[in-house]
Amino acid sequence: MQNTVIINDIPYNLDGILADCWHRLINGVKSSKHPFHCPTLGTVNNDEVELRTVVLRKIIPAERTLIFHSDERSPKIDQIRKNNKISWLFYDEKSRIQIRLKAKATIHHLDDIALSRWKDSRLESRRCYLVTPAPSVLIDFPEDGLPKNLEVKDLTEENVAEGFQNFVVVKTKVTSIDWLFLNHVGHRRAQFLYEENEVKKEWMLP
């Protein structure tokens, strides 16, 4: 039987599918218009699952690592501290490819990694971490919580510096990849499990 999947007239074996997964993730960082740029992140909150959209900030394929930024006061950071097992969901509607990742998260706050990512971010992005009193706090009227006297045109390194206290970098190391290709003639699915020194690659029923 055929041991490949045809996508856009190109045959992919398991090695090719795995390489394509990482290629798509890398492109998700490079372009804000790429369907993988804003994936869904899942965390565990006691006995419930919490989902939200985040911006994919960086990919390190050699370390199987995906990175996103957050506010240290956000509930998801507390959830990750209590249970660092997280999941990612990506979907490309045009190519009909879904990728689900399981990973373990590490939080970087007020350290060299956080400082490096902070310096690489835009001033308007840093401004987001000046929200008061904190993300997810209930309020009486709809507002963004940002300083009223700090317009984007007035931003400087100095007047957004305080936001660094709330800035965190979350590095997530992938432990498995679940790949799904939706096709009207028959869906195809594969699984990749990262073990100590190898990747276990298997076809699965969709």
Automatic annotation (TrEMBL):
SUPFAM superfamilies according to UniProt: FMN-binding split barrel
Pfam families referenced in this protein's UniProt entry, alphabetically: Pyridox_oxase_2
GO MF annotation list: FMN binding
Family matches, as InterPro entries: Pyridox_Oxase_Alr4036_FMN-bd, Split_barrel_FMN-bd
Domain called Pyridoxamine 5'-phosphate oxidase Alr4036 family FMN-binding: residue spans: 22-108
Protein's name according to its UniProt entry: Pyridoxamine 5'-phosphate oxidase
Organism: Pedobacter cryophilus
